[in-house]
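Q: I'm writing up a methods section and want to include an example of the input and output format. Could you take the sequence below and give the corresponding predicted structure tokens, formatted cleanly so I can copy it straight into the document?
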Amino acid sequence: MRAAVLHEIGQDKLEVLDDIESTGFGPGRVRIRVRATGLCHSDLSAMAGVLPQPAPFVPGHEGAGEILEVGEGVSHLKAGDRVVVCWLPACGACPACKRGQTQLCLAGFMNAGTPNFKRPGGDVFGFAGTGTFAEEVVVDAGCAVPLPDDVPFDIAALIGCGVTTGLGAALNTADVAAGSSVAVIGCGGVGISAIQGARLKGAAEIVAVDPVASRRESALKFGATRAISPDELPDAKQQVTGGEGFDYVFEVVGRSATARTAYENTRRGGTLVVVGAGALDDYLQLSMFELFFDEKRILPSMYGGGDVLRSYERTIALWRAGRVDLESLITHRVPLADINEALDQMRQGTALRTCIEI
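A: Here is the clean output for your methods example:
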């Protein structure tokens, strides 16, 4: 089968090969024919070594498709079922799951160290234990979430990561208050989803901050009340909040520099939500005095900060009701053979989400 492979961490191009075989099928596992997958910035981060991931590997973790085969013991799925790939499944038995914090379950991360594929040259891993830039993938049955018939595969793929992360940051983690002021720093697919979440919660002012003009224009269509470049943020802070700072600031870039900017633009007693996935060695510096004196809440948001399956269901319900726009998030479409074009679109900031059609 075909798959896009990164041979070494640090390379900026993927090679589409046709000698890949999915591996690991057996009890408790399912084999999925991938139909659509989104390109998330986390894929680029793993390729660059910002996020830890053994190589060679097949990127992609935001996918949807059809069940080809189920292993022994899998009773809730059958061949032909439509599913969303969940890269962070809940085991249901660990302390995090028992506390209701299923997004903190580590079971999914354990899968990342087991090869999902092989080729004549040896084993190949799948990013985050999945690897959806491939025609087929074998995953634990818990990673395959049943998909209603009315949800297209491309929309479902987005729900598998970016939309759930952004919406959940606003709805679950921040629980944005109606009438509040919000700034979102970084307006790709996840940031735009956070903007939609803040709009759903009734935020009065939503300021989108991004260096790319096309993304700023898109943010206004998705619910931002104003869209600015990073160097305009001080003026916006003054105009919108009288210089006090925003009630909520979402950092959706994953860098300490932007997190520091977000902190400085959050009002005293306000909330900074860290959504971007950053590097292990990139440290955010805060003084002990400002932590005490400003009483700002710093809330990291992992995969939307809530139960993943419930978040999927909620997003689908909101989409059906026309309360969130998911179709418009897909600004580009490319076949798997042109995957490197999709990577360029992401790096240049020209795409909110690129759908790779497989």
